[in-house]
Amino acid sequence: MCGICASIGNDNQIRNVISGLKTLEYRGYDSSGVALLKNGKISVVKSVGQIKCLQEKLADELNSKIVIGHTRWATHGKVCEENSHPHLSFDKKVAIVHNGIIENFEQLKKQLPNVKFYSQTDTEVFANLIASHSGSNIERLVKASKMVKGSFAVAVMFENDNKIYCAKRKSPLYIGFRHGQVMASSDVSAFGENFDYFYKLDDDEFAVVTKDKIDIFDKDLKLVNKAKALFEKAPFFDDFSEEKCFMKKEILEQPIVLKRTFFKYFSEKIIDETTLTKIKKFKKFHFVACGTAYHSALLGAEYLREFAKKDCEVSVASEFRYGFQNISKNCLYVFVSQSGETADTIACAEMVKQKGAQTLCVTNVPYCTLNNLADFVLPTFAGKEVAVASTKAYVAQVFTMLIFALLISGKDMEEELKKFALQFSIKALPDEVLNSALGYSKIFFVGRVADYVTSLEGALKLKEISYINCIAIAAGELKHGTLALVDDDTLVVVVSTREDLKEKIENNIQEIRARGGKILLLSQFEHHVDVEYEIRLSKFMEMLMPIESVVQLQQLALSFALEKGFDPDKPRNLAKSVTVE
Ligand code: AGP
């Protein structure tokens, strides 16, 4: 995974690179580093931990007009300074930062028998390959890239050369320009404000940049004339900027996200009739996604089945990728992803396209790899999501896919959705519920159909930020095995928003209580069973209840993490965007 950020300008670029790296921490945050050029010589500073640790290490006297930087999520080699980027070549004349995976790095190392390697990474060999070639610096980079198999976005610095060199294959790389500064980064968000335009490098393209010039080449070193892309103004959410963590801020932003989504799809009508007509023709829809996006895809499929009577299937991307698939041109493949950069999801979209089928991508980041593979794009309007645990992006996906299903079905429910979007508010989690729930170390989440999806999402949130071992299970499946785990120390969170399934859920609650399990019930209506704890939900149309209920579970997870003193924005072992397999 990892994020790279490099900058060249009129003055000291360390601050610009550090602030760029901070916006890329969602790609990994276990260690970071920078290389800078001072009087023609390369110096490297690295640190284990978040970017703030690197920042503390960067002494004031260090400054350079050329800096390349990296934030890491370990793939090859443990978390330590030796494995952190930038990596240097054996002669210390080439420094490189890399995002991606060099699949043939072991074979390549054997081709450099006299080189001593200092790290366990796949990247170090790239620096040494460049150093081992002759020619101009861009020629050396191109020659080395041709030997490498796998994915890479790299920024490279050479001794005594006041330029930054870039190369890209399969991992994203953007180059932004403003007067007196050029920056290369894994994501345009690192450029910050006031950049004039940027280029998106395509696979096997190379760039040579100075502070006021960007030259882009193909693999034969012919100059490429690329179109400049302009920055889209990001949705601006400043109401909750005082919140202590991003996850809280993002939970609180959800009412705004719903209003904005409604406005985009109904007032601005961002999907036109021609597109809808084309999409309606598909007989089948196959959703593919990972993690939270997979959960929203489960709901998206349910909405399309219910309202548009479409045949739908849903797969986890890492399974879809290696399972046997009968790709059909009558099926529209729907890829759901907040970032649009998730490696498994992208690989599935590529596979589907190669087999001649069409794709619809539901993404939250406008300039992302997945959108380049899309025949149709269904944007979500969550705004930038920073916390690793996805909250507002999930709610945006669910609401967007509900609107989409209704548009495909031709049902006019604009007024009902508008009422919901305008009325929806965040209700704080009752204190007594939180205080009691905190006493349990074994927590299950159960529900049926859409409520089961909410349970899956609630359990994922709790796991990823509070490290509690919890599972979600379809309520009807309990007695097929999991009930064996229920005892006096078990809390079962029951989500029950389908009135027609109330009695079934009541039976499940009885089964759990008979084994000593304690119940936390989330529902908008009365149940005729005793429960230990209850969260009464606001009553909305049934199709909207997954949004109302999940927000309570997001808050439950956040409160657990904060109570236990964990950083909810940067949970251990995880990264926001999983850009490697
Ligand atoms: C959610 O809280 C996650 N951290 C994770 O499951 C995420 O949803 C998943 O990695 C997919 O990411 P994407 O939406 O950017 O593709």
Summarize the structure in words.
- The structure is a single chain.
- The chain has 581 residues and is an alpha/beta fold.
- It has 3 domains: 3-233, 4-Layer Sandwich (Glutamine Phosphoribosylpyrophosphate, subunit 1, domain 1); 247-423, Glucose-6-phosphate isomerase like protein, domain 1 (Rossmann fold); 431-564, Glucose-6-phosphate isomerase like protein, domain 1 (Rossmann fold, 3-Layer(aba) Sandwich), CATH 3.40.50.10490.
- The strands form 4 sheets. A 7-stranded antiparallel sheet has the order 3-2-4-1-10-9-11. A 6-stranded antiparallel sheet has the order 5-6-7-8-12-13, with helices on one face.
- β7 (152-158) and β8 form a beta hairpin.
- The termini are close together.
